[in-house]
Amino acid sequence: MTRIAAVHGSLAAHRHTQREITDMVARICLPPGADRHVLDRIHENAQVHTRHAVLPLERYPELDGLGAANDVFIRAATDLGTEAVRGALRTAGLRSADVDLLMFTSVTGMAAPSIDARLVGRLGLRPDVKRLPVFGLGCVAGAAGLARLHDYLLGWPDHVAVLLSVELCSLTFQRNDATPANLVATGLFGDGAAALVAVGERRATKAGPEVVATRSRMYPDTECVMGWDIRSSGFKVVLDAAIPDVVRRYLADDVRGFLEEHGLKPKDVAHWVCHPGGPKVLEAVAEALSLPEGALDVTWRSLAEVGNLSSSSVLYVLRDTLEQRRPEPGTPGLLMAMGPGFCCELVLLRW
Fold it and tell me: Would you call 274 a catalytic residue per the annotation?
């Protein structure tokens, strides 16, 4: 048995309205004198009100290629990651020396030594702490990371494990790129970090939900619907308009089959902790699962307030569910996210 002891979020320093970010994108992405009607419509339809950015908006035109953006990523990810892990450990009532495993995930920057290695001394972690840096899972990594922490803690029930996600999506926005995929990404994604502390059965507390089971699912012939084309200019986003159709085709059978193995149906799920992939994806999730009105309200609110934070987002939705809609003890919840592969990760919780 694994229990979630704490979740803490740390947002990038610069908060902006969607309109302010749209104006910046128009300056750096559209050709001079171009009609910005399509850009304005895409950003308005994202249903994002505010987002956080790691740099002041006037600094983004200065980022010249992958190297410059990645240098910013390393510095900022180390700072935000430190803040997020410290906050989560404080909430859990644990010390840095208690941590046995630190898993780090991001898809918006690269580092060697990895960000988790750079945090060992800064956080005061033990020199024998286990580390696991993960790159490439994208938006699904918040759910997949929690699932892998659960796997680890089943084997080490007296251990403490931390999942740290840092995503600085604004550093991937492509200058001079007016393609629909780039315009959608610049209207949807934000910058932030989240840390989750989980404990094994022998250290379990009643401070948070229990992880009951997990399920991973890869979908056939979907490798090219989401991801990056990595170029000298940076991470160029791949976002296929077919993603909502993939959700409608596969998600319901996966969720129902997973729940049935534990004697449950979708109507039994008290709280849906869903990654805010974007309006069309959330509409597809609600439609596929026939969710009641309001089932994804926490997710929609997170999308509006901070945008899509890639792998960090589902952890923010989990945090907000725990803080704003504390479920009744003993009731089931389902945490889920989707990402490059194309894939889905499901985590069954008991509050």
Answer: no
